[in-house]
């Protein structure tokens, strides 16, 4: 069974086999977690993202999907980029958010990663309410068959940490 741990802090400072990036579909960096990972990880990550765009992902990575690159200068072997959905009060996009976690774990399994650090996907600039984002994240990780031994949710502030802690027994 996969252990779920919580850490309050900066995901770019984590040591893990794979760090998940809440990427935008362009894969070319952006704000929030995405920008921080690209800045701290250095140019090797962007270089591999550009190669992915030039080959398989010419129109960008679709929402709910995941793909891996090098981790560059991060203390990890890989960065798994996943594109979370923007929150919409008019349309239930919960399945797309759950898919981010399932797809990231599938990619982690393909890579042989045993420890994976996740941010709260879509809970930042994409506006997903943190309590619901935490519920979807934890339920999906628990329900997903994976060889990953530890999923670490790295949460930027106390509010996010408390929302995720409320999902754990």
TrEMBL record:
Entries under SMART domains matching the protein: A1pp
Name of the molecule in the record: O-acetyl-ADP-ribose deacetylase
UniProt domain Macro: residue ranges: 1-169
PANTHER family xrefs: GANGLIOSIDE INDUCED DIFFERENTIATION ASSOCIATED PROTEIN 2-RELATED, MACRO DOMAIN-CONTAINING PROTEIN
Species annotation: Streptomyces cynarae
Signal peptide residue numbers: none
